[in-house]
Structure formats: structure tokens, C-alpha cells
Amino acid sequence: MSSMARITVLIGALTLSPHLQVRGADIAFAPEFGGDALYVMNTENRSVIKKSLGLGRIQELAYSHVRRTIAFVGSRTEEDPAHLFLLSWPGEKLRRVPDAPNRAHPYRPQFDPDGENIYAVNYGPVIFRYSLEKQDWRPVAVEGVADLHVQGVAFSPSGRLVTISPGHFKGFLIASVDKDHFKVIRSILADFDSCISAHWIDESHIVFLGRKTPGLQFLWSFDMQTGQTQQLTHQPLGTRDFLSLSNDGRGVVFTATDSVRPDWTVWSLSLDSDTPVKLLPGQKDNSYLFPTWLD
Asked: Are the beta carbons of 111 and 72 closer than 8 angstroms?
């Protein structure tokens, strides 16, 4: 990355949990307002870089460790329609993905574990799959549930299972994965008032953001085999809808605040610890969203 594209910005005296100082790991995020650049925190030297991409809006980051590519939704200006973009990491060349058929504009992209496809949703009954090799979109039907309005997907490490966020956000659907369709096999966490942003630690454990009653949202884990949940964060810390699991499955980064007047910023938690760590000072007039682990 050239010096023209990277501007190093030191933001206060950052304190990272020792468990999360993964050698070579970075954390990408974007501001809620004025999102014309991608920000990347280096967890070794505690600095943040600003990478201008020539866009007016950047959101919904996802990363493939296999392909070493960032996918995100963005637009050239605030008024333009959003499109899906790809950025090789580290790199400078931005590539726009062709639009899906019928002006579907899929959002909340997620890579499959092999990094061969990107899956995205459009609050409808199907999930969209973009083949990075064939460079085309295909609809993936979801069987086993009626009147589905998909709000997000996440794959297990093997790629054989997927969590689906339904439109009402009450729990998740677990589906088996076939080439051209998903088949819902069970529903979990239906007693929650709201759930979002599931990530698979292994084939039987997930972390997610949710709340059992209206109010603050917290970080949780869930054991598929026992049906047990564990609350990992507590008041006064409340989270937004953005969560990312590290590639080794040991820690998470997420957007949260512990203030009465929210300063939404990037926090981390090692999954063998009970102490969340605030990684960046917050801003009263802006929020740091979509934190995502990179290599």
C-alpha cells in the first residue's frame, strides 16, 4: 500500500487485551457518518490507518482469510444506490461486483469458508450467491420455512451448516447447506427478543449479539448440543449489531458503548476472559461500525 493511500493516525493510548494481540492481525472498521474511508487498526503497534477508497459510503464489511479479500457494501456518493465491492488485502485496487438480477441490491455479504462464493441477502425468501470464479449471481432457495425474510447468514467452519437471521430477528434458523438450496433443520434461541450477527466458533458453538427483553443488547454464546446460553457482556455495556470473530476463534471485536450518551466504538473480548476492552476512544458525533478481523 502506497504512502499516498495510507495515512497513519494515532488515536490515543490504545490498550489491547494480551489475548487479542494476534501477530499480524488487523481490525477494519468504518465510521457511521462521513464514511468515505476504511480504517484499519494494527493490533501490534496500536495505530490506525485511514485508507481512502473514493467512495462516499462504506458499510457491512466481511473478510475471507482464504482469499485475503474484503467485501463490503458502498456507494460513490451518499445519494447513489449501494453496490457490492471487493478489495484484495493488502491492496489498493477496488473492484465493483456486478449488480444482482432484477435490481436486487443484496446486502450483508458473507464469504463461504472456502472463499469461493459470497452470500448476501435482500430481506426476501431467497439468499443470493455470487461466484468469484464465474462472476455471476445465483439465487439459493431456503426450504423448510414459510414467509421467510432473510436478514443475514453465517457459515460453520465446515460449510455444512448455516445460521439464518429471520426478518423478525427472534432467534436463528439452522440450515444444512446444499449446492443450490439450504434446508432448515432447527430453530434456536426463539426465547430471545432479538438476535443478530451469529458467528460459528466450531460446528456446535456460536457467538452472537442479542437481548432477551427490550433494552440493551449483549454478547452471548450458545452451545448447539446442550442448548445452553452464556451471557458474555453485561450492563452498562450495550452493543450495536456488529460483531466479528477472530480467525483462530479465540476473540471477538464488536461495536458497543458503556455511556449514557452513547459513543459507539470498537471493543474486544477474549473468549477465555470476562473483561471487555475498549480499543478506541469514541466520538460523540460519530460511531465506529462494522469491525472486522483481517489477517
From this structure: no
Q: Which residue has the cell 471487555?
A: 276
Say if residue 81 is preceded by a cis peptide, omega within 30 of 0. Answer: no
Domain extents for the chain? 6-293
pLDDT at 36: 78
* Residue ranges, the chain, pLDDT below 50: 1-23
Residue range 6-293 forms a domain whose CATH class is mainly beta
SS3 per residue for the chain: CCCCCEEEECCCCCCCCHHHCCCCCEEEEEECCCCCEEEEEECCCCEEEEEECCCCEEEEEEEECCCCEEEEEEECCCCCCCEEEEEECCCCCEEECCCCHHHCCCEEEEECCCCCEEEEECCCCEEEEEECCCCEEEEEEEECCCCCCCCEEEECCCCCEEEEECCCCCCEEEEEECCCEEEEEEEECCCCCEEEEEEEEECCEEEEEEECCCCCCEEEEEECCCCCEEECCCCCCEEEEEEEECCCCCEEEEEEECCCCCCCEEEEEECCCCCCEECCCCECCECEEEEEECC
Q: pLDDT, tens digit, for every residue of 98-123? A: 998 887 888 999 999 999 999 999 98
Single pTM value for the model: 0.89
CA distance from start to end of the chain? 15
Q: Which residues contact 86 (CB under 8 A, 6 or more apart)?
A: 69, 70, 71, 94, 95, 96, 97
Per-residue cell: 288: 465506529
